[in-house]
Amino acid sequence: MYKVRDDEPDYAFVPEAEPPKVNRYGKSIDLVDSPDDPLVAEGLVINGERSKPDNSNRYKQHGFYFNADNCIACHACESACSLKNDLPPYLAYRAVGYVEGGSYPNTVRLNISMACNHCDNPVCLKGCPTRAYTKFAEYGAVLQDPDICFGCGYCTWVCPYNAPQLDLKRGHVHKCNMCIDRLEVGLKPACAAACLGGALDFGVIETTPENRDQLETQIPGFPTPAITHPNIRFQQIRSLPREMRRTDSMPLRYEQDEPGKGPYKPKVRKTDRAPEWNLRKLRSREDPLVIFTLISQGVIGAFLALFLGPLFGLEALSAESHPLARSLSLFVLLGLETFALALSTMHLGRPHRFYRAFNNLRYSPVSREVAGIAVFFNFLGAYTVLNAFPGLFGWLPQGWYEALLSLTGWGGVIAGPLAIWFMHRIYRIPARPFWNHWQVLTSFYGNMLTLGSLFVILVYGGVLLGASEPLAPLLNVFGGILVAGLALEGFGLWRHARDMQASEGEGAAAHYEQRTTFGKTWRLRNGLLAGAALAALLLALFGGPGAVTYAAWWAVGLAVLAAAVIGRALFYVLVIPTTMPGAFFWRNKGFQEHARESGLAEMPQVGVLVDTH
Hints:
By secondary structure, this protein is of the alpha+beta class. It has two domains: 22-117 and 177-246, Alpha-Beta Plaits (2-Layer Sandwich); 279-574, Formate dehydrogenase/DMSO reductase domain (Formate dehydrogenase/DMSO reductase fold, Up-down Bundle), CATH 1.20.1630.10. The chain has helices spanning 38-41, 76-85, 123-127, 154-158, 180-183, 190-194, 287-308, 323-346, 365-388, 400-425, 439-466, 472-502, 506-515, 519-542, 547-574, 589-598; strands at residues 45-46, 49-50, 62-67, 95-103, 106-114, 133-135, 142-144, 165-167, 172-174, 200-204, 232-235, 243-246, 252-255, 265-268. The strands form five sheets. It has a five-stranded antiparallel beta sheet. The two termini are 39 Å apart.
């Protein structure tokens, strides 16, 4: 248990306070019905020792208080937190960022110290597939167990406050634990106790500390509290300019609708930048997900085509017409999906613990996606074996083989599109407005139609050409489906661009980056989509029966694949989360890129990992 010093100053102790019954969100501050409940009265086990606290407020929601007028950006809170938790230099649970306003010489800087806010609605807890998070009745602390975590990083996507920290060296996430061991002996968290300016404080939520007048839920640079109902309260009385700007590389500013009135809203910080290529910057840690999502969507689409095609009169796809081509096609699809699953598993920080992905089917979209893909994969594997080796099942009673073939086929038909639905739900994240749009669904299903049809056209087009059979019936049908898929994706992208441009905040900023930093690459993707759609439509309507038409479909296929890869890479690198402001060096994506390019990252004290891919 944490040891209290004999000379511990009074300000280091959590003050006693009588809170209201409910907080401003209508949630009870009392976290248990009775402190005498045997499930909670035993105390916590910390470092192998059971605590026996005598604290009347132990089962009430606690939280941080931040007085922005007092913060001098000395970073004592960061240092105390890092020392207390023995953190490496590239990672911090608490960080101090800032925004600036005004013009020289009358400039104003507002500092913000932020860690985990131990929210009433912890989206990290609901999103985590391994159930590594728990919201405790003791102090309302949201705690995360690194030993359970397998390093997918999804909690870092859904949290609006940069609280969970993905440690790429250790392969797992860890975060602020509210210094629960200090609370158990009556002390404030280390960061609050170390604050030099009296800016950071701690106590029962909705109670006003000494020398405080405000208990606000927002401050310039702080994301909307509507997402998670965070347990932090602010004071900021000093007059600020109408516009406050970030000094990190995020193209964001914060502005009031009227000077001195209302909250500061995030808006785009535009500069006179010409569109660029920046193809090198398309690389990201999420590269395996680019490949995994595209392959999975294409495999599902191709399987639907192979199974449903013969049922709708396309006899060329049946086992009777081309048994070898059908069996080989199914094995190729199975191999591709196996590769995609292996790639996504190796993307985890701890891939050997992949099985924990099923632990949170009730809440986590990641768990549901993994379950959906796993079910589809098993149906695909069973159907492939049944189709390729019917002789192995001659021992089954009459009619059972056909029933199993039909069952596994229809199972894959249902499970595949359902898995894509779960896959799209992963990205509907309020903390990432650029993703939180129905265009994700049209893109994923559009790719299912496009890539699935393309696989059938290129494989069976070659088979039919080699067998001197007519190409037109097959190519016309799947060419039309391919065009429909491209049209679906194109419509979603058009609406997404229009909605993002009309919006404010992080979504609009991400679209601004799309039109500037990656402007030429974005236009190339759009041109490839439009050109492929037009060429595919002309081939479907007027294409001839010979090798020239088949070669033209290969050209269309290359354009479709290039557009899909570029588009999916842009999807991952462009997103700007509702993140807390960084500083000129710390938590600044631009400085991190510079440090890696210049070699500064090789010095551990810089706090930037050399390679994050």
